[in-house]
UniProtKB/TrEMBL annotation:
NADPH binds at residue 102. This is Homoserine dehydrogenase. GO terms for molecular function: homoserine dehydrogenase activity; NADP binding. Keywords: Amino-acid biosynthesis, Methionine biosynthesis, NADP, Oxidoreductase, Sodium, Threonine biosynthesis. L-homoserine binds at residue 187. Residues 355-429 form the ACT domain. The gene is thrA. The keyword Amino-acid biosynthesis applies.
Length: 431
């Protein structure tokens, strides 16, 4: 029995997936059952890196999700609409879905999985987080016997590639972003990468699986890497850190199920396991009881790596379809059946260490004033040093101990009003 796929999208990931499925020798033998029945694209005239019969390709994506012959719809067009609507129609029509679309799943997961559970179909999403790294299935299965307390990840390949090259080659942000786009790592609109939204989508999905509840994507706080300058990378390096865009989901306290879920550039100690994850590589560090720490590492974006994850989901479904193991109720280790929302703590209540760089007039007493203001707001400092001059302005770098974010922000607001303060070019958290 052949299993018929309707693939929506033939861009970076769609092309990689078709290539993998067409070149199936030496891979799992069940892949030989897969038939690429229909492929949906936007433009029929675009040159393609794969050969498919003309009759297979169409611009009518609705006809694919409505095609009674299609068993599995593989959504690889990205974006919110029409991806959401097509996924819902496919489910409504009783088709299983494989998607790489973290933007849709993190925002519309409740709607999608509620319908999928009602229709008795699976929605698989291994490619949506960490590209080729198997992390969704391990969280659903092997790790789910643990009480997880923290998930910390480098989950965006584009920004890790940019930060790595800025760090190692001193390259400019714009030039490296253009390279990441050429390599097929970046989203169609790279703002989603650079401003941290893509990482926020991914940590919402990981948090939901790790902590067993739905996550309201709107409550995930998110800062991107636009403000990161070569100056900060150099100072961080001198202080023993590298700068990484981290996505973090953690229990606020061991006794409370409230979570902190956020994305921000972070100074990571060079000795930390995540400090050496470079280029397009991603890593996800999961900490729980009784397991301790486990880290998943691998290529986080790109055609081949992501196709591997997409095809592993297809394989999982093919195995079940072929052995007749798909019928309601769904296997709880393969489906998603969370009902309740996790409580997310407000950012101001959380504690963190901060690195902050000030440009000030070169006057006596400035460091004293900064120290007094921080002290007044209960912000304890680990170090405060004048590091040099930029033009005629003195540059002062402060590193705090763990402080309440709200208190730290209030201190910064006060300091900003001081006459001697020219600007605060950067303020970053320290892991
Ligand atoms: N690139 C990567 O490394 C990774 C991407 N992902 C996710 O995979 C998904 C696909 O990404 P990627 O392959 O990079 O995207 P691309 O932009 O390279 O490809 C998108 C494909 O979808 C088609 N398409 C888009 N909109 C429509 C529409 N409205 N109607 C018909 N066809 C449409 C395009 O058609 P046409 O070719 O005719 O323009 C194109 O073939 C996204 O959700 C992304 O977040 C996940 C992990 C890694
Ligand atoms: N744009 C994303 C692609 C994979 O999800 C990234 O850079 O990580
Ligand atoms: Na993955």
């Amino acid at each position: 029995m052949g299993i018929k796929l309707g693939i929506l999208g033939l861009g970076t990931v769609g092309t990689g997936t078709v290539q993998l499925l067409q070149d199936n020798v030496g891979r799992h033998s069940l892949l030989q059952l897969v038939e690429i029945h229909r492929v949906g694209v936007k433009s029929l005239d675009k040159p393609r890196d794969v050969t498919l019969a003309k009759s297979v390709i169409t611009t009518d994506l609705e006809s694919i999700v409505n095609d009674p012959e299609v068993d599995i719809v593989v959504e690889l067009i990205g974006g919110l609409e029409p991806a959401r609507e097509l996924i819902l129609k496919a489910i409504q029509n009783g088709k299983h879905v494989v998607t790489a679309n973290k933007a849709v799943i993190s925002r519309f997961g409740a709607e999608i999985f509620t319908l999928a559970n009602r229709q008795g179909v699976y929605v698989m999403l291994e490619a949506a987080v960490g590209g080729g790294i198997p992390v969704i299935q391990p969280l659903k299965q092997s790790l789910s016997v643990n009480r997880i307390h923290t998930v910390t990840g480098i989950v965006n390949g584009t920004t890790n590639y940019i930060l790595t090259r800025m760090q190692t080659e001193g390259s400019s942000f714009d030039a490296v972003l253009a390279d990441a786009q050429k390599l097929g790592y970046a989203e169609a609109d790279p703002t989603a990468d650079v401003d941290g939204w893509d990482a926020a989508d991914k940590i919402s999905i990981l948090a939901s699986l790790a902590f067993g509840g739905r996550i309201n994507r709107e409550e995930v706080s998110c800062e991107g890497i636009r403000q990161i300058s070569k100056t900060d990378i150099t100072y961080a390096n001198n202080l023993g850190f590298v700068i990484k865009l981290l996505a973090i989901a953690k229990k606020v306290s061991p006794t409370d199920c409230t979570l902190s879920v956020r994305v921000h550039p972070t100074l990571v100690p060079k000795t930390h396991p995540l400090a050496n994850i470079n280029g397009v590589y991603n890593a996800i560090l999961v900490e729980g009881e009784p397991l301790g720490q486990v880290m998943f590492f691998g290529p986080g974006a790109g055609a081949g790596a992501t196709a591997s994850a997409v095809s592993s989901d297809i394989l999982n479904l093919v195995a079940r379809l072929q052995t007749g193991q798909i019928s309601a109720p769904l296997d709880p280790l393969l489906g998603c059946s969370h009902q309740d929302y996790c409580q997310i703590a407000p950012q101001s209540e959380l504690t963190a260490r901060f690195y902050t760089r000030f440009l000030t007039l070169d006057q006596p007493g400035v460091i004293g004033k900064l120290g007094t203001s921080f002290g007044k707001h209960g912000v304890s400092l680990e170090s405060i040093v004048q590091t040099g001059f930029q033009d005629k302005l003195a540059e002062i770098v402060v590193v705090t101990h763990d402080v309440k974010e709200g208190d730290f922000k209030q201190a910064l607001e006060e300091i900003r009003t001081f006459e001697a303060i020219d600007s605060i070019p950067s303020s970053l958290r320290v892991l």
